[in-house]
Design a protein that fits this description.
With 345 residues, the protein is an alpha/beta fold. Helices cover 43% and strands 15% of the residues.
């Protein structure tokens, strides 16, 4: 289960956190993926980034992620914090203003991409300052809350149209003796940038393993392979085969059952079952006024299970919370409980 604050009051009261964990445990869940890094802010006091404004305004004294982890571990559930925004920051963020050389640029010198209804930028995974901050941000929550791993998603990325900033140009010239090509989809140019992202992932694994932080488990939740590589330079097949990720969660938010089943047959996903790591499917339970009805959800879960995949639902409030829809919380909670009892263990 993915859990987040948007839109949800979950993080702001210990009572809500405790109740949510208890209900999820009773309904057959085994792993929680709470969002810890979103919109340029964290859900704990950090030396690397600002505290989420609503959490700061509420004057909350508890750490939502540590509280959730404590409650989950008492019930035998694992907790893997989800660093949703990865290398992405609001264009207006202080870290962007203070470190303009950290920001990737398009060929015309612009930096902003329209995403989630806001102007966003991506920090350069090849820049030492960006790497130090990224690794520090992850390391502190792993150490503080004694979690069971961390999750990166499709925002741990190098958008393919970016990479024409002075820092990257200089680094590319030093590495190859050439200027970056004007065509941002040039295959050699894409491969070189993908290697920089891979190097950061490799460094993250090394830091988690060598620093005594307690876990080196890395989950990745990308989109379908072709889209992930051609849009975000995420080569998750190489990352899995190279031992850089321990779990693959492929998002599949197709509306129809036919579309969902078709996406399960993607070649890279079919091959992933033989890679020796857990392969899960991200399923939309409900979000932003869109609620998937229980019969459809149950069939999607069964289709994934037939192929040997687990599932992760997006998101908590779409289960039996504010986006429970016309079926209502009681029917959905009992429906999920029954569905999970039927699944193979």
């Amino acid at each position: 289960m993915w859990l987040t604050n948007s839109p949800s009051p979950l993080y702001y009261e210990t009572r809500r956190i405790d109740q949510a964990v208890a209900e999820l445990a009773a309904t057959g869940f085994n792993t929680l993926y709470p969002n810890v890094w979103s919109r340029g802010a964290t859900f704990h006091r950090s030396r690397w980034a600002p505290l989420e404004p609503a959490l700061a305004q509420a004057g909350v004294s508890h750490d939502p992620i540590c509280r959730m982890t404590e409650q989950a571990h008492r019930r035998g559930l694992q907790v893997i914090p989800w660093f949703e925004y990865g290398l992405m920051e609001p264009a207006s963020a202080a870290v962007v203003r203070q470190n303009p050389d950290w920001v990737l640029q398009k060929r015309d010198g612009s930096t902003a991409l329209e995403m989630h209804g806001r102007q966003m930028v991506f920090l350069n995974p090849a820049h030492p300052g960006v790497r130090q901050r990224f690794l520090g941000l992850i390391g502190e929550i792993v150490q503080r809350c004694k979690v069971d791993g961390i999750q990166l998603d499709d925002h741990f990325a190098w958008p393919v149209e970016l990479g024409y900033d002075p820092y990257t140009r200089d680094l590319y010239r030093q590495s190859t003796g050439r200027e970056p090509p004007d065509n941002h989809t040039d295959r050699a140019w894409m491969t070189w940038r993908r290697h920089q992202l891979t190097d950061l992932l490799r460094e993250l694994r090394r830091v988690l393993k060598s620093s005594g932080l307690g876990t080196a488990y890395v989950s990745l939740s990308p989109g379908p392979f072709r889209f992930a590589y051609n849009t975000w330079l995420q080569d998750w097949e190489i990352w899995a085969l190279g031992g850089l990720i321990d779990e693959l969660v492929v998002q599949n938010y197709a509306y129809s059952l036919a579309g969902f089943a078709k996406d399960l047959r993607q070649p890279a996903l079919v091959k992933a079952s033989s890679w020796g790591i857990p392969v899960e499917i991200g399923i939309l339970s409900g979000f932003g006024g869109r609620t998937t009805l229980m019969p459809t959800l149950a069939e999607k879960v069964r289709l994934a299970s037939q192929r040997g995949h687990g599932v992760i639902y997006f998101y908590w409030e779409g289960m039996w919370g504010v986006h429970a829809g016309a079926e209502g919380p009681a029917l959905r909670q009992s429906g999920f409980s029954q569905l999970h009892q039927e699944l193979p263990r």
